[in-house]
Automatic annotation (TrEMBL):
Name recorded for this polypeptide: 60S ribosomal protein L35
One function term, GO molecular function aspect: structural constituent of ribosome
Annotated keywords: Ribonucleoprotein, Ribosomal protein
BP GO annotations: maturation of LSU-rRNA from tricistronic rRNA transcript (SSU-rRNA, 5.8S rRNA, LSU-rRNA); translation
InterPro entries per UniProt: Ribosomal_uL29, Ribosomal_uL29_euk
Origin species: Paramecium primaurelia
One Pfam match: Ribosomal_L29
Length: 124
């Protein structure tokens, strides 16, 4: 397992296989940590970082697959789940929509109708 690990191969696997391999990796990490506590050799201690990175890659691929399946399922729907929507900024997300900005109160409507803008004929 010292060779370079390819994420490309993980993307071709089924989610069930990925979860099984992930459990094996987590078990291996637990073993390595117990070796670390019992003052094990340096080779095994250096492997902890590699196993952690490999676990992160597995989790990344699993989350990608889940997100893609949810995207495909909600493609026809108008409402996307919150974590799939565009992040943008808080101010942009909370500002009023065009229709909300265009709405006027009753008092504003009365003012507009009863007191329209005056037109002046300017002399030159």
């Amino acid at each position: 397992m010292s060779q370079k690990f390819k994420v490309r191969k993980l993307r071709e696997q089924k989610p069930e296989d990925l979860l099984k391999d992930l459990e094996k990796l987590k078990g291996e990490l637990i073993q390595l940590r117990t070796v670390k506590v019992s003052a094990g050799n340096a080779q095994k201690l250096g492997r902890i970082g590699l196993v952690r990175k490999r676990i992160a890659k597995y989790l990344t691929v699993i989350n990608e697959q889940r997100r893609n399946s949810v995207k495909a399922a909600t493609k026809s729907s108008s409402n996307l789940p919150v974590d799939l929507r565009g992040k943008k900024t808080r101010a942009i997300r909370q500002r009023l929509t065009r229709s909300e900005r265009a709405q006027k109160t009753q008092r504003q409507w009365k003012r507009l109708n009863n007191f329209p803008l005056r037109k002046f004929a300017l002399k030159e």
